[in-house]
Amino acid sequence: MSKGIVLLAAGGTGGHVFPAEALAFKLKERGYSVHLVTDSRAERYAGKFPAEAIHVVPSATIGSKNPVAVARSLWTLWSGMRAAKKLIQRLKPVIVVGFGGYPTVPPLLAATRLGVPSMLHEQNAVMGRANKALAPRVKAIAGGFLPESGGAFSDKTIATGNPVRPAILAAAEQPYLPSHPGEPFNLVVFGGSQGAQYFSKAMPTAISLLDDVLRERLRVTQQVRPEDMEMVGGCVAQLQMGADIAPFFNDMAERLAKAHLVICRSGASTVSEISVIGRPAVLVPYPHALDHDQAANAAALAATGGAKVIVQAELSPERIASILSHVMNDPEKLAGMAAAAKLAGKPDAANLLADMVEAIAAGKTVSEFKRTRV
C-alpha cells in the first residue's frame, strides 16, 4: 500500500527533469506514489520517469515588457493555478516538490494556498527566477550548490547536492581508465538545449587542426542540434574520423563512463553527473545565462581540480586543439583530474533529498531536520 502521493513539478528541460527523476526513483523505493507536473518539452526526457501519471498545466513566464504579453502571461498563470488546484485537491499529495522552471509556479502556488507542505530543489549555485519567486512561500529549500549560510533563504536551506539518476550511479561504478598514446581516446561533447550551436561550429574546426596521429585516436560523441546535423556530419565525413553525432543520446551516462575527457556547458545537473562519475572536464559556461549560474557551478568543480573552466570568448578552435594535443599525451594529468572530480561528487544526494521530503511532508521544520543529521 502506498504511503501517499508526492507531486513533483519540473520545467521541461533535462536540468530540471533529471534531478526530479532521481528523487522519484528513491521515493518509489520507499513506498510512495509519484506524479509529475511539467510541460510538453519534457516528453523526450519522461520515458524513464517513474511517475504514475504526467500532468501538464498551463504556465508562462513574464519576460516581456509588452503590456499585452504580460496580461496574456498572467491569464495563463491564473488558469494554470486553477488547474493545479483542482489536480492537488483530487490527488491529495502529502507534499509538492518543485525543481525550477516556470511550469513549477502554478502547482507550488496552489499547494501553498491549499496548505499542502511544499519545498523546492534548486540545482544551481545561483537561484533561478521561478524558485526565487516561490522561495518565500515554501517550507524548505534543498540546494545542489546553494550554501546553508549567507544566502537570502539560508534559514530554510539544506545543502543536499543534486540527485543523479540511477544510470549515472551505475556509470560511477566504472573506474576511469586512462588512454595512453596510440590508444583510442573517447571525447564527449555536449552543450545542452541552448549551448550546442557553439560546439557544432568550434569542434570540427578544432579537430581538423590536430595532427593525423591524434585525430586517428579520437572517438567523438557530440550532441548536435537538428539544424546543425548536416553541417557537422559533413565535417565528420571529410575528416574521416570516428564520431557519433545526434541531437540527444539516451545512453549518455554510459558514454560519460567511457569518456577520457568531457567538453561541455556547466549546468548544475551536468556538473553533478560528471562529479559523481568522476571524469575530467573542460567546462564552458553558457555566456548568456541570465544569472550567470553556470559560471558559479563550474567554479565549484574547478576549485577541486576536477575541471578546467574557460569562458566561451576565450575558447577558439585553436585553443581547443591545443588543449586536446596536450591532454591526449598526458594520461596521468587526466587521471588526476578524474580522481579530483570524483571526490567532489555527491552520489548520496537523492537519498538525502528523499529524507528531507519525508521530513517536511511529516510536518518537521528545517531546523528539526538539520538536528537529525548531526
Automatic annotation (TrEMBL):
Pfam families assigned: Glyco_tran_28_C, Glyco_transf_28
Q: What is the lineage of its organism?
A: Bacteria, Pseudomonadati, Pseudomonadota, Alphaproteobacteria, Hyphomicrobiales
Name any Gene Ontology BP term.
Answer: peptidoglycan biosynthetic process
Can you give the residue ranges of the Glycosyltransferase family 28 N-terminal domain? 6-142
Answer yes or no on keyword Cell cycle: yes
Return the PANTHER family for the record: GLYCOSYLTRANSFERASE, UDP-N-ACETYLGLUCOSAMINE--N-ACETYLMURAMYL-(PENTAPEPTIDE) PYROPHOSPHORYL-UNDECAPRENOL N-ACETYLGLUCOSAMINE TRANSFERASE 1
What is the species listed in this Swiss-Prot or TrEMBL entry?
A: Rhizobium vallis
- HAMAP family in UniProt: MurG (MF_00033)
Domain named Glycosyl transferase family 28 C-terminal: residues: 187-352
* UniProt binding sites for UDP-N-acetyl-alpha-D-glucosamine: 13-15, 124, 165, 193, 294
Q: How does it sit in the membrane?
A: Peripheral membrane protein
Chief location: membrane
Recorded metabolic or biological pathway in which this protein acts:
Cell wall biogenesis; peptidoglycan biosynthesis
Taxonomy, superkingdom:
Bacteria
Cited function:
Cell wall formation. Catalyzes the transfer of a GlcNAc subunit on undecaprenyl-pyrophosphoryl-MurNAc-pentapeptide (lipid intermediate I) to form undecaprenyl-pyrophosphoryl-MurNAc-(pentapeptide)GlcNAc (lipid intermediate II).
Gene Ontology cellular component?
plasma membrane
As for subcellular location, the record says: Cell membrane
Q: Which UniProt keywords apply?
A: Cell cycle, Cell division, Cell membrane, Cell shape, Cell wall biogenesis/degradation, Glycosyltransferase, Membrane, Peptidoglycan synthesis, Transferase
Q: What is this protein called?
A: UDP-N-acetylglucosamine--N-acetylmuramyl-(pentapeptide) pyrophosphoryl-undecaprenol N-acetylglucosamine transferase
Q: Which family does it belong to?
A: Belongs to the glycosyltransferase 28 family. MurG subfamily.
